[in-house]
Amino acid sequence: MLGAIIGDIIGSVYEFHNTKRKDFHLFTPKSRFTDDTVMTLAVAEWLTEDRSHGKEELVRRMQTLGRQYPTAGYGGKFMRWLYNPKPEPYYSYGNGSGMRVSPVAFYAHSLDETLHLAELSAEVTHNHPEGIKGAKAIASAIYLARTEATKEEIRSYVEENFLYDLHRSLDDLRPAYTYDMSCQKTVPPAILAFLEGHDFEEVIRLAVSLGGDSDTIAAMAGGIAQAFYGVPRKLATYCYALLTPPLRTILDNFEEMLGCRESDPFCLERFVEAQETNGKYQQALVELEHGHKTTHWIWYVFPQLKGLGHSAYAQYYGIADADEASAYLAHPLLGSRLREAAHAVLTHGGKDIEAVMGGHIDTLKLRSSMTLFDAVCPNDVFGKVLDTFYKGNKDELTIERMKKR
Fold first, then answer.
1. Among 39, 227, 311, 383, which residue has the least CB neighbours within 10 Å?
2. Does the keyword Chaperone apply (predicted)?
3. 35 among annotated binding-site residues
């Protein structure tokens, strides 16, 4: 399921600004989850919480979660359905049924159950035969991929049972391909992207490079690619961090139910690895104890919120929000080291903080970092650093971004 979310987030930038290239940036400052992710997680929540798999409960989950994210990018008809006190299916053959179906295929214990649940998940809105067919085609491809079917077996099954032509080439389709939200025009290309790709990332790049409804095509392709290849850790970590805490909770609960929850979803080991390389943390601690920073380690010793800096280091070592900051503090090594480094700074209370941190820029980064961790753990050493060197003044941009998250 996370594969579909990754596809959605990567494709989100290109949905209305199509690219026909495969060498685009996977992530930009505008990358975000859309309605595809929200509804995928609504289906996951339904499967997790309602073991009877009733339609009324699915509708309730979709409406409740969807209304919490009113600007996620829903289509007009679906938006009206979302807020209708008596929602009824509206005979749609749009690809909304295919983009949200991936949890079904990871949950089901057989192909028959996959097809049954896919139809249920579709027909509460997309009860047109093509809408149901699209959902069943994507779900069956994912189920077959995760049960070790070959690509040719998946191609043959989908062609024989859903009559999609999967012997075309994306290179042939790409030049004339235009925006279309129907299952008929998006489900086959999504499956073709999976069939032509050689790893997870290439599948996503192929799906987006087609143009058109990029986020949804990539979401459908990403679900199949996850089942076949697994998900690269860096992509999973980046996209997990872009989810809101409530959405992360749904994902965590679903993966825990399936027994595949990642023990370190934020990939905090990236900080451990950086600190351990060539003794970087010990070097940083020595510099702080001597009262003069001279080498480059600020990003992974005093991390700040993602998005405050624009360098590759700032993005890679950026903290997503209060959840990741709390996890950082709870880490048996990182939490203790952060406090140790902050205490080392405090020993220079009578000095100019810019002299201690080696310049103005890192002085600002230290304040941002201390503001972040003081917010999730008040009355700790972080607040003392702010009081001692910044007269208690916190970084307003950090506070503002935390409120938005």
1. 311
2. no
3. yes
